[in-house]
Amino acid sequence: xxxxxxxxxxxxxxxxxxxxxxxxxxxxxxxxxxxxxxxxxxxxxxxxxxxxxxxxxxxxxxxxxxxxxxxxxxxxxxxxxxxxxxxxxxxxxxxxxxxxxxxxxxxxxxxxxxxxxxxxxxxxxxxxxxxxxxxxxxxxxxxxxxxxxxxxxxxxxxxxxxxxxxxxxxxxxxxxxxxxxxxxxxxxxxxxxxxxxxxxxxxxxxxxxxxxxxxxxxxxxxxxxxxxxxxxxxxxxxxxxxxxxxxxxxxxxxxxxxxxxxxxxxxxxxxxxxxxxxxxxxxxxxxxxxxxxxxxxxxxxxxxxxxxxxxxxxxxxxxxxxxxxxxxxxxxxxxxxxxxxxxxxxxxxxxxxxxxxxxxxxxxxxxxxxxxxxxxxxxxxxxxxxxxxxxxxxxxxxxxxxxxxxxx
Length: 408
Fold this sequence. Notes:
alpha+beta, Adenine-n6-DNA-methyltransferase TaqI, Chain A, domain 2, four-stranded antiparallel β-sheet, four-stranded mixed β-sheet, 10 helices, elongated
């Protein structure tokens, strides 16, 4: 007789060996439906919650809208039933009014954090994502409430599981705020270290530099543009590989760094040779996204070979006129970004072509030492942002791993 499979997650805290039990979701939580329009309580609407983050994208001081909705209390859970694939959820740390498409859930045993992470698991998502409606699909409460989920029998295990994931979320939020703060500081420094519109000297300069900057056509600084937009493995009669040379596209070329976890594709040697055709990218070379999104700038991080993929181009600079590091910062300066938007074409997904870039004029330092000082400074600043971004991605991956392995 085959041994019955143990009903327990792969990963558990020490001291817990008993099976988990199955319970209908309606026994795990109570769904609150008390209508309320208390003018002294903040209102939270569907769009106020960031997808897959569980935080508000507005401060509570902005949320007093005096609307009618469902009363929620501290430690209630708001689950966005509208378009459930957007994954909107919020663990309340104050009382308020949930306006619109929310289920307000009160855990039956006060283990709010455990339930909060239960609704983020794939097992819950698979059920809640079975929707009714077409234009505005919503989760089906009758189906979800009757679905059975595995949960620990001991409250202490629920508490520990909820606590560890809660602490990881706190770290994720901390690094997200750090990245946002660094990005704001960087934006302010770009405004100070580059001339304002119609001016030829920056407001802040390094010591011993006082020369007036010079206006040039953008392409006067560029020897060659490497542009393989529209090229795909299929058009070359080939396919992506499981490993090999990483493809750089508009989805993984971010503002100041390469996200190697996004849009991951690889080319084998044959595809690389046919695709790049001798146009090897080199460390420090400037990359620019032309569309969706338009205007992201990063530099090739090392001398490993890369495939230049969708909606991304690279520049070979005229080293007598501009350094790669300075060019990368110049393209992200406020004046250049504003000009690029004015040159862009398209509706929702704006883009720029080489023809558009030929109309771009830039103001830049004529002193290579000043260029290098500015480039070095922002390289250091970008490294700080990248450091926190990598920590953030690792924490998100850790959370994903724990959700997959600490629940059934």
